[in-house]
Fold this sequence. Notes:
Elements: H1 3-15, H2 29-45, E1 56-60, E2 66-70, E3 73-76, E4 90-93, H3 94-97, E5 98-102, E6 119-122, H4 124-130, E7 133-134, E8 139-141, E9 157-160, E10 168-171, E11 176-177, E12 181-186, H5 198-201, H6 203-214, H7 224-228, E13 231-234, H8 237-284, H9 298-313, E14 320-324, E15 330-334, E16 337-340, E17 354-357, H10 358-361, E18 362-366, E19 378-383, E20 388-389, E21 392-393, E22 399-403, H11 405-411, E23 418-421, E24 429-431, E25 439-440, E26 444-449, H12 455-468, H13 483-487, E27 490-493, H14 496-512
Parallel strand pairs: 6-11, 7-10, 19-25
Antiparallel strand pairs: 1-2, 2-3, 4-13, 5-12, 6-8, 9-10, 9-12, 14-15, 15-16, 17-27, 18-26, 19-22, 20-21, 23-24, 23-26
Amino acid sequence: MKAEQLRKSILQLAIQGKLVPQDPADEPASVLLERIRAEKQHLIKEGKIKKDKGDSVIFKGDDNCYYEKIGSEVKNITDEIPFDIPDSWIWSRIRECYDIRNGFTPLRTDESFWNNGTIPWFTVEDIRSQGKEILETKQYITEKAITADRIVPANSFLLCCTASIGTYAQTRIELTTNQQFNALTVKDLYRNLLSDDYLFGIGDYFSNLLHVAAGKTTFEFVSVKKLGSFLIPIPPKAEQERIVAEIEKFEPLIAEYNKLEQQATKLDSEIYDKLKKSILQYAIQGKLVPQDSNDEPAAVLLERIRAEKKAQLGKKYVESYIYKGDDNCYYEKVGSKTKNITEEIPFDIPDSWEWARVDTLFQHNTGKALNSANTKGNYREYITTSNLYWNYFKLDSLKKMLFTDEEVDKCSLKNGDLLVCEGGDIGRAAIWNYDIPMCIQNHIHRLRAYSAVETKFYYCVLYLYKQSGIIGGKGIGIQGLSTKALGRIIFPVPPLAEQKRIIEQINVIFSKLKDEI
């Protein structure tokens, strides 16, 4: 059980009368309520208070159904009652027992409302700065800004009914609030029935009610009328105090539980990240799936790639390949020049694998730079680094710029292209798996294989290189990934059939981990 679930369970027990035992010595809430109503009728007759046509009396009939009497009308409200309560408890509408004051914000441009103010003015920021028991406020207003009936008595319950809806607090001082909050104060007649701290103790109950009520509207807002109609379960006053005290005992336990839970979540995340990294490390080092001697060798795949590259580049083509010498060192031959590159090789690979530069495997280039002076071409949508994330794209806010036919050929995308961020989070990559027309801006590299390869394998290599610091860290260690720097990155090259088996296995593993790479 999580900390939040524990909190909800304790609250549920509390409001159903199951958190603390009932005491037969407690006067039932229904008996006290009858005395209060009798006193109320007496005061009405003496003219000391006015009769409220909306006065509500909720009672349980002999048929075990709940009824509400308002004036001379009686209505079955059994469907509104959310759960059973002990016989010594009652149900009541909030408006019956509590005065509800709506807050407001004085005109900011009128300095006489704010300068040298002495009346505390409460907002949600006061909860964020000091917690849910309010002893002071950050802002104050003047007496000119407010009428006496706006002053909220100490120990009132403050409930946010819009914006930060469901947020609540208990004020220990007289104050007034902004319009986000309604203040609930026990009516004088009901002080023998209700503890000042009861609402605060079960505050999450009302927070949940607000979220349910607000969820039925387009704008999150619960009116004073709606709030006043909420039902509240009322135990005997002595039991209310026992419930609040018991809930307070659990708070340190829940806080500690929550702390341990956060630590465990962080630990789980760290373990998971290490596991993910280890799986990919095995994959690109040839340890995730076994080698198959029947596979076409990687050297043959590379010859086919070079042949395709030569056909595309013609006279611009320069022969380039990496090989392992008899001295177990790695060499790179480019044209007629040969160089020892052993220090560039990041790890060992199986004998059936090869090494190759990105330049050898992929034709790559960046897109078009924004240029306000450019007036040629047709408007086309394009993506930049703000649209490109690890393994996915955000395409809900695309922009357009002019592209000529020549620029479209260089900057447009095909399904299967591997895209890599040149700046920002350099090296961040995703595969374009769409058949919609799209171009790229100059902060993105487009990698398109010269001949068929398993592009997702190379996406995984990039991901691991980034996580390991080979890209943008201690390896290349540059703030931007230029076309030249990208082209010189060395990739392991397994046989094509093995590339496919590796990706299939990665997909199986990560599907079990409920993730995607």
